[in-house]
Amino acid sequence: MKSTLKILSKVRTFIEVYVPITAFIIMFLTFILQIVMRYIFRNPLTWTYEVTVIGFSWTVILGACYAMRHRSHVTFTLIYDSVNERNAAILRLLGNIILVSAFILLIGPSYEYVKFMDFQSTSVFKIKLSWIFAPFIYFLISIVLYTFEEIIEDIKIIKNYKKEIMTEK
Known about the structure:
Layout: H1 2-40, H2 48-69, H3 78-82, H4 85-116, H5 129-168
């Protein structure tokens, strides 16, 4: 069991760290190449747009998974900061339940769309669009799992708060 979890952790790190880093580097270098070719040599390349769009998409989608794992997304905590810990946990719990519900509902249709896009290819490299959109399925599943962790933490906060009140009486 431990070895399976270790392998899954390495796969998750590969998908959420190394794939977006590689996609970003390729995207950035391609973008620079396009600028040089277009404005210095006056000979724009046709394939660079495709590479930058794919690189940007994969960087954003998979990078968001990594940010969610480490809870480094921008959050607006104005309301959470104005209430006690228990009420903040309840509000977060409600928000996370809505988020998880919406993302779970999106998994099926998104998978069907990715499967449907298998017939179409990119114009230059002829890459199946299903391969380009596939990271979105990973994104949905990943966000659901990371949000479940937050839901469990908020439930623990709510339960501990009730225990504290009971022991004070």
